[in-house]
Cyclin N-terminal domain-containing protein
Amino acid sequence: MDQASKRRGRPLPDAINMKPIAFNLEEALAVEALYRPNLLVIQQDLKPWEVSLNSRDGAVQILRFLRIWFDVPQNVFFTAVTYLDLFLSRMKVQEKYLNCATISCFYLGVNKENVNIDLNQLVTISQSKCSVSDMLRMAGIIKDKLKVETGNQRLTTSADILMIYLDIFDCIDPLYREKFKIEELLTRLEVLLADNYCAFFRSSTLALCLLKFEIEQRMMTEAITRKSVILFGEFIHLLAKIRDIQVTCKIKTTDLVNCCNNVSKVLKQYDNQDRSKHSQNLMWRFSSSTLGRGKRHRNYHRPLDTIQEKSQCFSKKLRA
């Protein structure tokens, strides 16, 4: 440890451990630039029967529902969203085919993570009104149009870049990573990707804004509550490291500010438990015999008779 490090009171990053992390970040940024979906294309020359950005947000919410229902790893969701956004930004998709394309992207994400699920159950639960063969045919079309698996480069998601950022903080000081719960961070990233105002930005920008928001909410609040100068120093140090990452990833300051504002708005609504404008509507399907029995017993419960209120004069006598 040199004299400058002793004055700062914290160890310098290990250059040997930082080198592979820097290589992973450089590779992820290269893949991000190659396969970045441009969601603004969806709104260009939009026909009434074509998929809009609001419909896209609803489809991502369905992917979140399916991920939770089948209890698959969160990487399945992030991979499926990347496939869906790439497909919608490169192809004009009619609204009636969106549900089939959504579960097809989920199927591709499941295959990429080597997870086994029941395809018949996937089609039934999603209520997409398509068959398993339709889903498989749509999945083949998506793979053929995107061509993301033809090269040696691995498809990079926003979650992958977020984990690289956490590795950077871990290399600086392992105590920093302990302050973040990875599963909670990934869940909040899911919420952000379900909003097109946040999903529009680069994956590296969105992941960095999420980390910046969490640092400001956790460490700044803790430093103010404890009135600790040391915590304020750590907070400033982390903000400086975020600035270094911003320069390395070549993120414009205007993009970072706009993305941080959208991230703050969405996460505050999520923390306040505001109801999402998009949700998965489940419909109960009954057999003809069950439905018939339900009709015969519809009037089984009778309404109660109306209770007559006492007259006003009688109530006055009681008070007297």
In short: Residues 216 and 224 are 11 Å apart (CA to CA). The chain has two domains: 36-146, 156-271. The first helix runs from residue 3 to 8. DSSP finds 17 helices and no strands in the chain.
